[in-house]
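Pipeline run #58 for the internal structure catalog. This entry was flagged by the ingest filter as a single-chain record with no existing model, so it goes straight to prediction. Upstream metadata was stripped on purpose; only the residue string is passed forward. Reviewer on rotation: M.T. Logging verbosity set to normal.
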Amino acid sequence: MRRVALALAALALLAAGCDDSDAPPPRPQPQTGLRSVEGVMIRDWLMSVQHGDFGRAATFFAPGAIIDQGRPYRLRDRAAARLFNATLPCHADLIALRDEGAKVLATFRLAPGPGGPCRGRVQVRYTIVNGKFTEWRQLDTEPAPEGPVV
């Protein structure tokens, strides 16, 4: 029994001394997915809105943040950010994120909310500076083509 323990200890020491310098070092994985810092932040904001905590949802926006849903305007203060969050008509699930360098493109699946029935997908391009949304720009969605597809 003692020989087995010594043999295992020797193998462990031998393995610890192996040099894997020929193997390439692991590359760090970019954090652009739903678990990235931006993904967690967007999901936390979204959960605040869905739970009706519009005061907390407002804290994710920088003073003077630009909101653009077809017509841009600025949120001059926390009260304006609270109102914006409180008047979003749909609930949504965050389903994808894409890192665009200085911006992040989020894709949401819409669900019925306080504004009535909502469906489909929407994309919002975020600019995040110092942990706050400085720009929140909803992209135009392309309507489905009508008539036969050629």
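catalog note: The mean pLDDT is 79.
catalog note: Residues 37-138 form a domain with the Nuclear Transport Factor 2; Chain: A, fold (CATH 3.10.450.50).
status: ready for reviewer M.T.
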